[in-house]
From TrEMBL:
EC number: 2.7.8.28
InterPro entries according to UniProt: CofD (IPR002882), CofD-like_dom_sf (IPR038136), FbiA/CofD (IPR010115)
GO molecular function, one term: LPPG:FO 2-phospho-L-lactate transferase activity
SUPFAM superfamilies: CofD-like
Swiss-Prot/TrEMBL keywords: Magnesium, Transferase
Protein name stated in the entry: LPPG:FO 2-phospho-L-lactate transferase
The organism of origin for this protein: Catenuloplanes atrovinosus
UniProt superkingdom: Bacteria
Organism phylogeny: Bacteria, Bacillati, Actinomycetota, Actinomycetes, Micromonosporales
Classification via Gene3D superfamilies: CofD-like domain, CofD-like domains
Length: 318
C-alpha cells in the first residue's frame, strides 16, 4: 500500500512515526512524506529547513522529544560564541550537532544540488524509513505581516514571528513568498498520483499544510488523485495539540476547532481536499457536508497510539 502524507514539522514528524509503524505491518507498505519548506530560512550563512529536519531527526531516532526540534544531547557552544560576538539573530537557537546538518545542506545547495537531492543525501545517514520530499525545490518562505512597536506594519520571516515573538504581536496575514513561481519537487506529483491513500498530517493547517498546497499544481494533483484523501485533526476540543495553530487560525479568521479546520480544508467534491476527516473523540459527532467524519483518540502519546490513529485514518479512507 502506497501512503503519501502531507506533513509539517513537529506534529508531522510524530504522525509519520505512526504511519511508518503501521506501514511496517503491511506486506507492501511504502510511505512518502511531502514536507513543508516554507519555514526554511538562512541564518548565520546557513540554510536551515526546520520541518524537513524535524521529520528526519525524529524518524532517524535522533530528535529531542521534549523540544520537538533539533537533536537530543545537543550542545550550544557555537551558538554561545555567536552570541558573544553579538552576531544576530541571537534569538534562534542553533545546536552544535544541528549546525553540521546545516553546513552540509548549505554546501550542497551552493554546489547546485536541489533541496530534494540534499534531503536524500542527509537521509542516507538518518535512515528515516520513509521517503522525504520537500514540497518544492524552489524558494518558498512564509512571511508574516505584523505591527511592530515603533515600526508600524511590516513583514517578518515566519521564524522571527514563531521564535522571537512567539506570535505575540498584532498579526495581519501570512504570505507565502515565492509560491507563484514554485514547482513541485521531483517525485511529489508522482507520489500523489500513485498513492493508494493520501493522508494530511495533524500539522498546522495555516503555516504547514497551506504552504504545501500553495505550490502550483499540488491542489490540482490532490483533486485529481484516484486515492482517497483523509485528514487528521491537529485540534482537539477547540485547542491545538501543540504549537500555535490557534493564533494562526485566528489570523485567517477560522475557528480553532476540528470543525473549523475540516471546513477550511473542505470536501473534495466541492473543490476542497477531504474525502475523510478524523477527529478526536472529544469532537465526535461533528458533521461536515460532503466529508466522511470519524472519531478516534488523537493524542499521539507514543508510537503505538499514533499507529492506532493511522489505522483509524486508513479505515476511514477505505
Ligand atoms: N524553535 C524555537 O522555539 N526556538 C528556537 O530557537 C528554534 C531553533 C531551531 C533551529 C533549527 C530548527 O530546525 C528548528 C528550530 N526551532 C526553534 C523550531 C522551528 O522554529 C519550528 O520547528 C518550525 O519552524 C515550526 O514548526
Amino acid at each position: 500500500m502506497r501512503i503519501t502524507v502531507l506533513a509539517g514539522g513537529i506534529g508531522g514528524a510524530r504522525f509519520l512515526q505512526g504511519v511508518r509503524a503501521h506501514a511496517r505491518t503491511l506486506p507492501d507498505g511504502d510511505v512518502t512524506a511531502v514536507v513543508n519548506v516554507a519555514d526554511d530560512t538562512r541564518m548565520h550563512g546557513l540554510r536551515i529547513s526546520p520541518d524537513l529536519d524535524s521529520v528526519m531527526y525524529t524518524l532517524g531516532g535522533a530528535h529531542d522529544a521534549e523540544r520537538g526540534w533539533g537533536q537530543a544531547g545537543e550542545t550550544w557552544t557555537v551558538s554561545g560564541e555567536l552570541k558573544a560576538y553579538g552576531a544576530e539573530p541571537t534569538w534562534f537557537g542553533l545546536g552544535d550537532k544541528d549546525i553540521a546538518t546545516h553546513l552540509v545542506r548549505t554546501t550542497m545547495l551552493d554546489a547546485g544540488y536541489p533541496l530534494s537531492r540534499v534531503t536524500e543525501a542527509l537521509c542516507t545517514r538518518w535512515n528515516p524509513g520513509v521517503r522525504l520530499i520537500p514540497a518544492t525545490d524552489d524558494r518558498l518562505e512564509t512571511h508574516v505581516v505584523v505591527d511592530l512597536p515603533g515600526e508600524g506594519q511590516r513583514a517578518i520571516h515566519f521564524q522571527e514571528w514563531w521564535v522571537r515573538h512567539r506570535g505575540n504581536v498584532p498579526t495581519h496575514r501570512f504570505v507565502f513568498v515565492g509560491a507563484d513561481a514554485a514547482k513541485p519537487a521531483p517525485g511529489v506529483l508522482d507520489a500523489i498520483a500513485a498513492a493508494d491513500v493520501i493522508l494530511i498530517a495533524p500539522s498546522n493547517p495555516v503555516v504547514s499544510i497551506a504552504p504545501i498546497l500553495a505550490v502550483p499544481g499540488l491542489r490540482d494533483a490532490l483533486a485529481s488523485a484516484s486515492a482517497p484523501v483523509v485528514g487528521v485533526s491537529g485540534i482537539i476540543g477547540g485547542s491545538p495539540v501543540r504549537g500555535m495553530a490557534d493564533k494562526c487560525l485566528a489570523t485567517i479568521g477560522v475557528e480553532c476547532s476540528a470543525a473549523g479546520v475540516g471546513a477550511l480544508y473542505g470536501p473534495r467534491a466541492d473543490g476542497g481536499l477531504l474525502d475523510g476527516w478524523l477527529v478526536d473523540t472529544a469532537d465526535a459527532g461533528l458533521e461536515i457536508p460532503g466529508v466522511r467524519v470519524a472519531s478516534a483518540p488523537l493524542w499521539m502519546t507514543d508510537e503505538t497510539a499514533t499507529a492506532a490513529i493511522v489505522s483509524a485514518a486508513l479505515a476511514l479512507a477505505a
